Amino acid sequence: MADENTGKKKGSMSVSEAGRKGGLAVKRERGVEFYQEIGKMGGERVRALIAAGRKATSKQRARGARR
Predict the structure, then answer these.
(1) What is the reported pTM?
(2) Bridge partners, 9 (sequence order)
């Protein structure tokens, strides 16, 4: 069954179209600040993971040098 406005079949939305539609809905509901906050949290998490990786690598190198 085709949609009268677009001529597309129902359910034929692409993944990118669905993602954009959902993103715009969240932006309307929560605002730009929501995306800024989750971006900041993600950046902090990445920094913590990098630091943990560096710490683990330096410990492995120290153990390897003693052997």
Answers:
(1) 0.54
(2) 2
Looking at residue 62, what is its pLDDT? 81
- Residue 8 pLDDT > 70, yes or no? no
Q: What residue segments make up the domains of the chain, in order of their start? A: 15-66
Cα–Cα dist 11/8, whole Å: 8
Cβ pair 32, 40 in contact under 8 A: no
Do the Cβ atoms of 3 and 9 come closer than 8 Å? Answer: yes
CA dist list (Å): 10 to 3, 5, 13, 14: 6, 11, 8, 11
DSSP 32: H
- Residue 2's SS3 state is strand
Residue 62 and residue 67: Cα distance in Å, rounded? 9
